[in-house]
Sequence to fold (756 residues):
Amino acid sequence: MYHRNCNAPGAVGLVLLGLCGLMQARALSAEPYAWRNVVIGGGGFVTGIVPHPRQKGLMYARTDVGGAYRWDDRVRRWIPLTDGIADMDFTGIESLAVDPSDTNRVYLAAGIYSRGKAAILRSADQGRTWQQTDVPFKMGGNESGRFNGERLAVDPNDGDILFFGSRRDGLWKSANRGATWQRVINFPDVGSREAALADAADARPWFGFNQQPVGIVCVAFDPASGRPGSPTSTLYAAVSTTETNLYRSTDGGTTWLAVDNQPVGLRPNHLARASDGTFYLTCGKEPGPNTMTDGAVWKFNPQTGRWTDITPLKPGKGDSSFGYGAVAVDALHPSTIMVTTFARWHPHDEIFRSTNAGASWTQLWQDNTQWDCSRAPYTVNRNPHWMGTIMINPFNPDQVWFTTGFGIWSSDQVTQADAGGPTDWAFLDTGLEETVPLALISPPEGAHLLSGVGDIDGFRHDDLDQSPAEGTFSGPRYGNTEDLAFAGEKPQFIVRTGTGRRDAVRAALSADGGKTWTALGSEPPNSAGAGTIDISANGQTIVWTPRRSEPHYSVNQGTNWTACAGLAPGIRVIADPVDPAVFYACGMHDGRILISTNGAASFFPTPAVFPAAADFGGGFGGGGGAGAILSAAPGLKGNLWLASRANGLYHSSDAGATFTKLNTVQEANSLGFGKAAPRQTCPALYLAGKVGGLQALFRSDDTGETWVRINDDQHQYGWVNHVTGDPRIYGRVYFATGGRGIIYGDPDPRQAKDSL
Fold:
């Protein structure tokens, strides 16, 4: 059997890889894998939760960046429904709707940003399979007002009919279960001014949440105005504007008029109908979720046209400013309603309950309220916030669920509050994993995985199937941990960078494999924090490139810093995993590889030259968003790999002096290394990219000569990044998603290999 030499000369590699390209074009093999989440529990904004009114225990949840889930009441866990999505544009769920007359039908309005693609996903088997209709109206599952709703609704009397309220393109209707859509031309042109302002500001959705138009946030039918098998004649639509914002149609959505005497000055967030026909409306001054400085709760009686202000607690000014986010009505007791405040940071948000249609209220969050965080210990120090949706179980009035910026809480004895008793809440997110991992490492000793996570800092994962018992990293706490690295020869030494207060050092060192952390002594001059970081093979030299700053190195754990000569600001530096004196970097503009042989004191270019940055996928080595990322194979001196989204994959076995292009790889989004295959000496390669014209996740056991697809069409997760193998377990791979948390996979022995 041929054994690949990991440090074979580049010319030899080129010949072998050229032959491999011809072979791979004929057949690309696949190996079945078993995929699981690395358990954290929740972690992101669950923007909506919708029960089915006719099937006990059937409910769905939507998230802003992590797809949708179905609750399995039998095993009491959430089942992900959108892992088969290959396009990240569809991982943000703008709205969710069930067909009240059919327990199997569910619909998703999928579109993460209003400048991307959007689609209606429709399922006739409770989300096990989906059909997709691309739509011309824009969505913003991760934009302003994303917890409002629901803006997608199914006619309770005629399941063929759906309505959708868009952000900037008005109201839309489908008469064939979402297969095709037509704009409702007679709906008032409201909210267009905000859309024009957003266009004028050229707001970027990933930074300018509050500048995005929100549009029509709620569509609600009055089922009593129709009969089964015929379209419902009366329905309502609420628009996120402080002017006239609630409209009604009495002819099935053909014509619309503003509801008389409605309150103005605030924006509607949620509209709920009680079984006695009363509507309840929660409002805020801003669309949220980043801020909300005023709000109210209103009751509307359609029979009399009367509006009543039933706000439980009037917002004040300064620290006591807040709005109202969510409202729910007990399906069995129409006078029982619950609402939540929104953005009440001091002392915390509130949960209010009324059993007399809002005439009086009970405040549920008291000093003796118990919060069970055992399923996700990291939540112990996190007050529930961004309470976007609240739901009273239509079959069990004792059970209430509400969503937050990091998951779902549930209580099974809420009615005790009606007699003055306390309520207890549990974090009920088993199976629901919605985090955005920013960094992953798998050291050769200690915990198999450490992660840096957006909004939650990061974790040492001693047990992949349990939320870390110690919660997030000990020591310095960061909002985001943006980079992680371990010393190649002393892997118990780990460094990390993060976002946090400007008066605190935003990088830390662990000398015990991530169990405990100590902030570095200082930051480099003109540092903006975070950025990329690495540590020499012997754990003595740290190189840190803070945001928008030049790379600096320290040999005394950050007490003093010295600029790396020969490097421009923003360049990511990596350490050779074997030689502590050697570091590498990618030139961001001139397509050069740079090397230091004096412990990062100075860098000089190697002879290797790549295409100009503009032709190489947008730049070199600037971090996770750059077009080309340089990495070093563990345990091998001078063994470098350059992954380019535009130009594929390159390999060097001579410390970057020359590189060989792997002709089998057309795109390389992320590359990682794992334990070598049996009878092989080179690390296994794991690639998220395009091989043989197929975009997927691959493994190579022979230095990239041949590749095996290891994911399948049911496990695509929208976006795969930060791929790394496990140096101790052959075949195991970890990767980050854009919102579905951390996924790990192992070869599945229950299935035989097949061919694509």
DSSP finds two helices and 58 strands in the chain. The radius of gyration is 27 Å.
